[in-house]
Write a structure and sequence with these properties.
By secondary structure, the chain is an alpha+beta fold. Helices cover 32% and strands 26% of the residues. The chain is elongated and about 95 Å long.
């Protein structure tokens, strides 16, 4: 015949507590917390890797000493934003005097030429003027993405009258 017995209790336990049940729940809670922490860490690592992969897949951002010497800037990023209708071109100032001339020359802004199709855009929507530029500081130009000339995960050439920076990744 089956015999039921009460679990052993130690002095100080609450009379209605089930020590065996409590002891079994704690390891389960610990394992749940460990699993959740591991999942969060994995998701963080994967998402961070994906964000870096787009720009780094082709070796990173190209540089051109001739453009840097002539314009006083180093182009650092091209991104399609605003639901695909705008392009932000970021650059770092290397020489404040040359960069100020570059920034002020709205009639000769660089042309962005798609390397994937025969399209380009030269229409600068926002080009700040009249403020002092500091070496090491990042500034930007905002272009209209004319006819969807640039798309993410492609490459663009940044061209001036006489200079060209090729294979810039588009984010």
């Amino acid at each position: 015949m089956l015999e039921l017995t009460a679990p052993d209790t130690t002095p100080g336990d609450a009379p209605d507590a089930l020590p065996g049940a409590v002891a079994r729940r704690r390891p389960a809670v610990r394992w749940s917390v460990v699993v959740v922490v591991v999942i969060v860490l994995l998701v963080t690592v994967v998402m961070g890797g994906l964000a870096r992969t787009r720009a780094a897949a082709d070796g990173g951002v190209p540089q051109d000493a001739a453009i840097e010497a002539a314009l006083g800037v180093r182009f650092s990023r091209v991104a399609v934003v605003g639901d695909g209708g705008l392009i932000v071109v970021s650059y770092v100032v290397l020489d404040a005097e040359k960069a100020t001339r570059f920034q002020s020359d709205t009639a000769h802004a660089p042309v962005l030429v798609s390397e994937a199709r025969d399209l380009s855009t030269r229409r600068v929507s926002l080009m700040k003027q009249g403020h002092g530029m500091r070496p090491g500081q990042t500034y930007y130009l905002v272009y209209e993405n004319t006819a969807g000339a640039l798309r993410p995960d492609e490459h663009v050439s940044i061209e001036t009258d006489t200079l060209q920076l090729r294979h810039m990744p588009v984010l």
